[in-house]
Design goal:
The chain is an alpha/beta fold. It has 12 helices and 12 strands.
Length: 302
Amino acid sequence: MEFRQLEYFYAVSKLNSFTRAAEQLHVAQPSITIAINNLEQELKVQLFDRSKRKVVLTDEGKLFLQHVEKILKDVKKAQSELEDLKNYKKGVIKLGIPPMIGAYLFPKIFKGFKNAYPHLELHVREEGSWAMVSLLENGELDLGLIILPEQSENLCMLPITKDQIVLCVSENHRFSQEKRISLRQLEDEQFILLKEDSYTRHKIIALCNYYGFSPNILLSSCQIETIKELVSNGLGITFLMNGITKKWDKIVSIQLEEPMNITIGLAWQKDRCLSRAAQAFIGFVQNYTKSKEFAEIINLET
C-alpha cells in the first residue's frame, strides 16, 4: 500500500468521481483508476460502487475512509511540525549547567539566545561538571555548558572562555590580606564545598590529599548564594571561579599557589545526530562568544 493510493482514494471518495479527482490532483485519470483497483485487490474488498452514475463508497469503503482521513491528517500534522523545526519555530534543547556557570555565564547566553530564537525551548538541568560528562556521554543531555575536561574520547568540545579557581574567605578572615596562598596552609580550615558531582570539589580534595590531609568539610551545597552567605559570615572557606567573586561584598578572593586554570565551554556527545534546535544553540554560542558584547562582559568580570 502506497501513500499515493490513499491520497487518490480520499479524493475520489470526497468528489464521487474519478474524473474530478484526476483534475484536482493534476494526474491522468487512468493512473487513479489503476491505483484504486490495486488498492482494492490488496485489501480484498470493493471500496467503490461503480454501477451508478456517480462513484459511491461501499460500506467497506466508508470504514476505510475513516482510517485514511486520520492517516492523512497525521501526515499533514507531521509535515507541518517538521517545517516548524526546520524554520526554528519549534524545538527543545536538553541543556546541562553546573551551579557556578549557571550563576555566572549562562544568564547572558540565555538572554541572547532567546532573543535570537524565541520559539525554541531550553530544558535546563543543573548538575556539576563532573557528573555532566557522564550524562552527555550517555545521551541523557543534548548539550552541556561546563568546565571542560582536559580530554575526552566521547565528547565534542567548544571552548568559550578561561577562568581560574580561587580561594574565597570573609573580609575578616586571617588570610584576607594574603595575595597568594597554598592549600597546604588550609589544613585547619572548615571547607564549604560544592556537592560531589562538581569538578572543583574533586580537584580541591585531590590537592588536599596530595599535601597529606583530608579537608574538614563543614557543608556541601549546590546553591552558590548559600555558600556565599556562609563564607561572608566567617563560617568557612570555599573555592569558586574568579569571575563569580568580583562583585561580591564581604568576601575576598585569593589566588592559589597551585593554579587551577579552567576552560568553560560547550560539550556534546560525539557522533550524535543533533536536532536543528541543538545545532542552532551551538551556532549561537560560537558567534556570541566572539562578539564585542561578550568580550566586554568577560573583561569586566574576570
